[in-house]
Amino acid sequence: MIETDVLQRLLLDYQKGSRAYFKHALHGWSMAEAASDATISSNAVHILFKDVDSGEVKGASNLEGPQTIENWCAAKPNKQAIEFKLALSKINSASDLPPLKNPDFMDHVDDLSLLSHLHEPAVFWGIKNRFLSKRIYTYSGMVLIAMNPFERVDIYTDEIMRKFGGKKRAEMTPHIYGIAEECYRAMLEGKNQSVVVSGESGAGKTQSTRYIMQYLAAVDSLTDSEPSNLRSETEEAVLASNPILESFGNAKTTRNDNSSRFGKFVQLFFSNPYSGKVHITGAKVQTYLLERSRLIYQPDTERNYHIFYQLCAAAPLAEKKMLGLTAWKNFAYLRQGNAGVIRNVNDVEEFRTTQEALSTAGVPVALQWEIFRICAALLHIGNIEIAPNRDAASCSEIDAALIKCTELLGINSSEFIQWITKKQNIIRGEKFVKNVKSEAAVAARDSVTKVIYTKLFDWLVKTINKNLMRESTDSQQFIGVLDIYGFEHFATNSFEQFCINYANEKLQQEFNAHVFRIEQEGYIQEGIQWTMIEFTDNKQCIELIEGKLGILALLDEESRLQNGTDANLVTKLNTHFATPSQKFYAKPRFGTTDFVVKHYAVSVQYASHNFIDKNKDSMSDELKQVLAKSTNPFLRELLADDQVSAIAAVPAGKVVGRASAKTPTLGSVFKASLQDLMATMRKTESHYIRCIKPNMAKEPFQFEGAMVLSQLQACGVLETIKISNAGYPNKLEYAIFATRYGLLVDALSRATFDNKALTMKIVTSILTDPSKYQFGKTKVFLKNGQIAFFENRRKDRVRHLVVLTQKNFKRTIIQRNYERTKAATITIQTFARSFLARKRLTEKKKVRSAIVIQSLWRASRAKAVFSKQKSLIIRLQSAIRIQTARKTRLSLPMRDSATSVSLENTLSTLTKTVVVQVGQIAALQSKVGSYESQINNWKGKYEAASSEIGILKEEIVDLKAERDMYKEERDFFANTLSNCIQDGLLAPFGDFPFIPDTNEDSCTVARFSLPESKLKPEWTERRESILAHARVSFAPMPRGSELRDSLISSLKTQNEFLKSTVESLRSVQHRSSIYQVGIRSKSIYEEDDILAEAERERQKALLNRRITNRYSVMRRPPMAVKSAEDP
Ligand SMILES: Nc1ncnc2c1ncn2[C@@H]1O[C@H](COP(=O)(O)OP(=O)(O)O)[C@@H](O)[C@H]1O
Ligand SMILES: [Mg+2]
């Protein structure tokens, strides 16, 4: 049971809002948030958690630790909260409480080993967070975890490669190039390197291996100032080895369309770093455990090796005919998985790539066709029909497939079929030939295929290696890349899985040792106190498999027996290992044919069926001989080093059990090659890449929690965590630690201490348990979770400081507001008081004024009364005095009364006179006034009259001037006229104002008219008067005639008339009166003038009549007539 104060300290991390992880069946690990602080009551710890996603808390299901969230999830949606409840007695360490989430800033950390809480869920979530944000690579200490994106990601360009050139791993984000670069740099320093790429099928191992090889092939030019894309021939050949091995060794499986069915260790040799530019000088490929069963059987949706389908699809017609190739569906070996075509893969193109790669690897085209010939032959072998007779299998001699395959292989068909359907036994030196059952015959047939194909594959590897070894690679540095199948665990696990898992156990052992060594080196470097850390090793499990009396040994033993069976093997295993002391072996609960091995990752149940056969890997000696006699030289070459190749993998001088005398078993060969590999790897510095397949459906960036978690467990990443956790997993440089957590101590310490001293002060002041930390040379080493603890303390401190700052700030604001309010209140009060005081003063003033007014008023009233009384008193006094005086007077003698009477009379008379005179004066004054106004009236009238007179005078002058003008005109007119008459009107008119007009008929008529220009403005009134129109007509008559005389006389009369007219004009007079305004309206002519006028008119009419048709009318000025008509 844990101590209370330690528990209290642990529970500090379980405050409300803190997050922890719970195991989840589907999601691996899911996250929950504490809905309240952790409490201790009734001897148990209680923490209420809620779902982070929904955030609701509805009741709690009381779960006792160790926690599982399944119940919680099952209870959804009704129950979204879980109460973690664990009795105090059951809590022994922090690991009994729900695993805590790391601080948020670590959510996407590049290296998971930097996590403060270093446990399975933290690693799991670290990878998940990164993967969901499309970062597929993550470091976990020295391991690179590579998630398969199942999508092209743009991080493998030459540009990016160049960025990694010459960089340290920590300087760059996690990337496979980072690992490759690290290997390269370390290799240059003289140490051989190896990279172990592991993971389950389809996790991306082969792809990763390819990227590493690409990088290493280009690495020598990455740091050049002028990047070149030129690769050396060797580098090209190294890269070309991939398509060959993939065509012959890869197949479509349900998990991976291009699954490598063999393990591969590629060593790239580099030139001496001290002799100029480093470049790849050669390479060596080593393969492991090619899957043979695939050749004869493929599960549904899976394929045989790619090369067969490529051949069927792409071989030219002639070759097809020669090799008897048709569609893949026609071959029994190809059609079982019923998936001959892979989506997005073009077998025709792939075939071309294979051919090119073979050419690059130095295989001439003719030889290539020999290879394909063998492949075709194998396909035909699969088509050989074995009649399923009950006891004796048989096959027709004319079976087309048989004929074709034996033709292609160059062997005798009847011999071949004989040793397929029959078996030779040697009993006591005597040979017996025996019929075999059809299954045995089919097995024998297929064993030929398996053996030949394996030989072919080995030959290809050998050829590739020959081609890759351009220069002598002795004592050269190398980088090895191991692309090996990861831990496998299926529903049914067979011999292949057993071998694979055995290999993985071996690799895991190396891996653990390596991690352990690295960890230890780190501690030694930093010079900290170091005690051996304990962690569970898988050594015992390996011992169980490969030990002297291990499973493999027992398998070999059973395989060598004539009547050895799988069932016997299991019985043997059970008797040897199903003991309490053996912790890594178990009998399954049901059945007797299976056995269980408890591997480091998970326990695997193996089905023993076919273990012996697969281990024996046999082909009968008779068949071997038949093949050895082949006329096909290539086949003979393939089989030439039979035995040799198998033993070659076993290091020289080693003896693999007693079986070495005969054909070595597959198990022993595999074990030997594995030991060889381990020996090679131990001489190198290892790097680890763990590929993880994030989902089954190969969907881009889909994360299936449970699947990833099981792979994490299998790939050993979690093991490294255990190793780290046993030591001091939280390591931080002093500078970083002091900077981040400096605020946990006082400012003075921060200012005075250096980073290391400050770190020591912080750590020792906060961690009370000295076993939790150690101080190295450059780093502080802390036990698991301590960084998170510091982080939480830092968070508390920051929160405290923030609250303090807020508090002070708020206080300042409130204080300032208070001061302001106070000042304002005082001001208001002052104003109010002064207002009230002024109001009171005004009141007082009013009262005072009222009193003064009242007093004055009262005084005046009193005065009036007083003066009235006084005058009354005086009058009274005077009356009394008069009385008194009278009395005294009466008592005196009488004065002259007559005199006083007369005086009084005089006075009254005088008074009256004055009154009368005053009246008179007033009357006179009014008269004077009326006169004055009359005078003023007259004065006005006078002024008006005199101005009228002035106007009239001016008019008279005008009229006179007019009259003179008329006179002049008349004279001139008369003159002219008389001149005219005298001259018989022949004289020129000179400046006569009239213009003569026309002649008419026989007599000359002159019409005169006054031109407009001659009209004077003042005449306008009289336009139609005297001068308006004059017409005279003359007849051109001979001088001295009668008519002429009469005419002259009439003219004379007319002249007279004109004269009189002028006279009358002259007689116009003007009369005027000063005072009569109406004077103008009176006629300016006398009455007889009117009569004379009438007379003149009459005469004129007469004259007119006398002058026949020709007349001269000179009318009297109408002005006179008009004037006569005026009233
Ligand atoms: N880094 C990667 N980027 C993109 N796709 C990848 C990557 N790694 C693997 N893949 C995809 O996953 C498939 C399987 O990868 P592969 O390396 O053949 O798996 P394994 O060798 O582990 O069986 C590849 O064909 C490819 O489509
Ligand atoms: Mg592969």
TrEMBL record:
Q: Which domain of life is it from?
A: Eukaryota
Coiled-coil spans are 935-969
- Which of this chain's residues are annotated to bind ATP? G199, E200, S201, G202, A203, G204, K205, T206
Residues of the Myosin motor domain: 107-795
One GO CC term of this entry? myosin complex
The cross-references to Gene3D superfamilies, in alphabetical order and at most eight, read:
1.10.10.820, 1.20.5.190, 1.20.58.530, 6.20.240.20, Kinesin motor domain, Myosin VI head, motor domain, U50 subdomain
Under the heading SMART domains, the entry gives: IQ, MYSc
* A molecular function GO annotation: actin filament binding
- A Pfam family: Myosin_head
Annotated region described as Actin-binding, given as residue ranges: 674-696
Q: Name one GO biological process term.
A: actin filament organization
Q: Which UniProt keywords apply?
A: Actin-binding, ATP-binding, Coiled coil, Motor protein, Myosin, Nucleotide-binding
* PANTHER family according to UniProt: DILUTE CLASS UNCONVENTIONAL MYOSIN, ISOFORM C, MYOSIN
Q: Which family does it belong to?
A: Belongs to the TRAFAC class myosin-kinesin ATPase superfamily. Myosin family.
Spell out the protein name for this chain: Myosin motor domain-containing protein
